[in-house]
Amino acid sequence: MTRKISEESAVTDGRPVRHWRQDVVELAALLRTWWASRHGHAPPDATGAAADTGMDPGASVLWRMRTTVKDQPGSLASLCIALADRRIDILSLQTHPLARGTVDEFLLRAPRDLTASEISQAVSRAGGEGTWIERADTHDLVDAPTRVLGLATRTALDSAELPLALRQLLGRCAIRSLPGGDPAALEGVPAGGALEETDTVMRLRAPEGGVIIVERPYLPFTPTEFARARALVELDARLGLRVPHGQDVLTLPRGNAITVRRADARDLDAAKALHERCSPRTLSLRYHGPMGDADRYLGHLLSPRYGRTLAVQTASGRIVGLGHLLWDGEETEIALLVEDEWQRRGIGGELLRRLVAMAREANCEHVYAVTQSSNTGMVAVMRGLGLPLDYQIEEGTLVITARLETTSVGTPRSYDRSTRGGAEST
Q1: Chain-centre distance of CA 172, in angstroms?
Q2: 180 contacts 195 by C-beta, under 8 angstroms
Q3: Cβ partners under 8 Å of residue 221, min gap 6
Q4: CA separation for the pair 94, 103 (Å, rounded)
Q5: Could you tell me the strand order of the sheet in which 201-205 lies?
Q6: Cα separation values, 54 from 4, 23, 44, 62, 79, Å
Q7: DSSP character for 96?
Q8: Does the pLDDT value for residue 43 go beyond 60?
Q9: What is the pLDDT of residue 22?
Q10: N or C: the chain end with fewer CB closer than 10 Å?
Q11: Cα–Cα distance measured from residue 33 to residue 188, given in angstroms and rounded to the nearest whole number
């Protein structure tokens, strides 16, 4: 069962639900002054938030916190005072009005010796309910309007950015796309989208006619978040298909010139021709199933809704390699296909490094590749990245996961590094 969220979700009887919160900035300033007078610190100045609290940044940590408080005057003030008593500085605050109560979202700087449990208990005693808290980092210091504008800009430049923008807007969540050809997927989803009764699943009409499903079981969505997500989808729909046209021309050791560029659904016929030139083994290493089904995956793979695709083409315009970066719920998959005649020339390694760089730009923490345990070529190019790798083998299937959060991608290696393999190899 779903319920439609209207644009008037923040008002009741024509009046703002939280009209008394309009002076929240002044309240925050008063609390800082109160804190300084109690503890003998100088008034706040331009030296930064750490100076405001008297805390050394090295002795403090950042937290993101949400809690629900009653919709009545003084509830926010009580919460802020409780945080100040624990020497917790409020760096930013967003309010999400609900029909009953309000969800307050904080970015906090707290003393390092304070635990999440201690902060939650202080908030609970001050009237907060349903409190959720997790560690934050410096990226969270960007204020919400600036972050949303940045995501809108990225979405406007590239159709493939929409799932990533939604993920960054809403935090850790799983995003799935259902094609428009499935009538059951559209059932119960109005033009403006819908938020399920549990508030943990939102369904949005995709611009191409399908449905985008966003799930976040650990933290319910608010009407404000739903409205922001819907606005990004509407922007994507208005602008139509957009794929960056940049390309790089590279020269292989044998003297062949190749071009690496973004690919999309307009390359479908050329991609099918690539399949026809590939051997059964090469296709088997890539698709892990009946070779007669390989072509039917291409529409999905080339759609910007499911990820990004890089194409390698020769001077004559023939595509000889494809690299895919696929959004898989909360995960990110990498897959490669190189025509037999063009293997062992470093093309797979070049594609892989570029795809990993894209994953980094998208703030992905790791990427994984699925292949056969006999595909030593894919293992070699993954190891050539210089990233921490995890291996899982089950019934001949090998899953290689590269962690991106701590190690940078290595300098591109020369093209004369030869490896054996097929679809997922150089």
Answers
A1: 7
A2: no
A3: 170, 195, 199, 200, 202, 214
A4: 8
A5: 2-3, 194-196, 201-205, 211-215, 174-178
A6: 46, 25, 10, 15, 20
A7: E
A8: no
A9: 42
A10: N
A11: 51
Separation between Cα atoms, residue 21 and residue 25, nearest integer Å: 9
Distance from C-alpha of 398 to C-alpha of 388, rounded to nearest angstrom: 16
Residue 68, exposed/middle/buried by CB under 10 A (0-12, 13-18, 19+)?
A: buried
Look-up: residue for tokens 């499935």? 182
Token digits of residue 3: 């319920």
Going by C-beta distance under 8 Å and a sequence separation of 6 or more, which residues neighbour residue 392?
A: 398, 399, 401
Task: Say if CB 130 and CB 68 are below 8 A apart.
Answer: yes
Q: What was the pLDDT predicted at 302?
A: 86
CA–CA separation, 159 vs 161, rounded Å?
5
Residue corresponding to tokens 């009741």: 12
pTM recorded for the entire structure: 0.58
CB-CB neighbours of 210 under 10 Å = 20
Instruction: Give percent of the chain with pLDDT exceeding 70.
Output: 77
Give me the pLDDT at residue 186, please. 72
Q: 């406007």: which residue's tokens?
A: 156
Tokens of 206: 């995709």
Return the residue matching tokens 């940049």.
Answer: 246
